Amino acid sequence: MAFSQSANSTEPTTPPSGIYKLPKLLPLPEYLDSTHLPMLENIVCYVQDHPGNDIFTLLVYRDRADDSVYILPGERDGRTIDFNSEFDDRKKLIAEFIREKSLDILNLMRIVKIEQAQYYFSIDHGKVILQDIRTAVNKFMGPGFVRDMFSTIVSVPNIRKIEIISSNSIEAIMKNTGNFNGDIIIKPSRFRLYDEIIDDNVPLVVECLR
């Protein structure tokens, strides 16, 4: 089910004909494990709290055929969320978030001139947190952009530290000390792919689970 955006409300609607030609929900790639930390060496990175495993996504796009904006909710793996079956507390939380925040997100997209994007949110004890913004199959916005542009309208990840990752940083991460204590993810300040040659579109984002 998609949500059609009008000037004053966001209500469920049947997807328009030709929806197959429009963008599709893309899964959030799995994070790389700590064995990939050396790939971050000498790169300015954001060290953030780990988002956990409860993640949903919103694909926001404009159908140029009728100039309507659609919001398609889905799971981390790219499956569409069906609000017509088993409407549990989690789906209620997501539906309420869409109704409360969609206009703010759309207005900010217009301001920063983002035509379409897929947003990935985590749920932590009933709190919805924006984790990533995908603007193309092989392109995510950097963590600084997410914080600077969207923190006024939605919750964003807790940033523990911004630093150039060094061998000393990696040692501290592996020892689970200081700002690197507990479950974390580490993202380059500027988006990078894990491998620019192999066409798998995996972001260079490392998770450390304790």
Fold and architecture overview:
The chain has helices spanning 89-112, 143-150, 167-175; strands at 2-5, 10-13, 44-49, 55-63, 68-75, 117-124, 127-136, 139-140, 159-164, 184-188, 206-208. With 210 residues, the protein is an alpha+beta fold. The protein has one domain (2-208): D-amino Acid Aminotransferase, Chain A, domain 1 (2-Layer Sandwich), CATH 3.30.470. It has a seven-stranded antiparallel beta sheet, covered by helices on one side. The protein starts with a strand and ends with a strand. 24% of the residues are buried. The model is unreliable at 5-22 (pLDDT under 50).
Shape: globular
The portion of residues forming beta strands comes to 25-35%
Mean pLDDT: 87
- The count of strands amounts to 11
CATH topology: D-amino Acid Aminotransferase, Chain A, domain 1
CATH superfamily: DNA ligase/mRNA capping enzyme
Please give the radius of gyration in angstroms: 18 Å
- The secondary-structure element order is EEEEEHEEEHEHEE
What is the C-level CATH assignment? Alpha Beta
- From the coordinates shown, what is the CATH architecture? 2-Layer Sandwich
Would you tell me the structural class of the helices and strands? alpha+beta
Instruction: Enumerate how many helices there are, as a single number.
Output: 3
